[in-house]
Design goal:
Blueprint: E1 2-11, E2 17-20, H1 22-32, E3 36-43, E4 48-54, H2 57-70, H3 89-98, E5 101-107, E6 110-111, E7 117-123, E8 129-138
Antiparallel strand pairs: 1-8, 2-7, 3-5, 3-8, 4-7, 5-6
Length: 139
Amino acid sequence: MISVTEYLWLHTRERRDYINITNKVEEIVRRSGIKEGLCLVNAMHITASVFINDAEVGLINDFDEWLENLAPHEPTSKYRHNRTGEDNADAHLKRQIMGREVVVAVTNGRLDFGPWEQIYYGEFDGRRRKRVLVKIIGE
């Protein structure tokens, strides 16, 4: 059994952003040399998410609008968490909805996706450097 761990570092200019990280993860899988196994991709920050979905700009915009309707950033005073001096309670809620991580099978040295599946990093409290864990285990 082989285990490979790498980190992706992301820094968004906007508070909310959605970044397709599929190619970066595929490159790590390729470099790992693992032919059969599992690949974990995990947001290492409580206000960010990793999820799988279609790489279609309209859908990504729909996610953003839907999440903002469910947990709007403003008014920040409506959230008890923000009474601690923070202003990111909405980002914590959005992350819970979109999830923390994904696990993708590695088959014949490649991520084994269904049709249209892509890995996305969802940022809900950006404008600073954040980390994504990529851990591949297998043979």
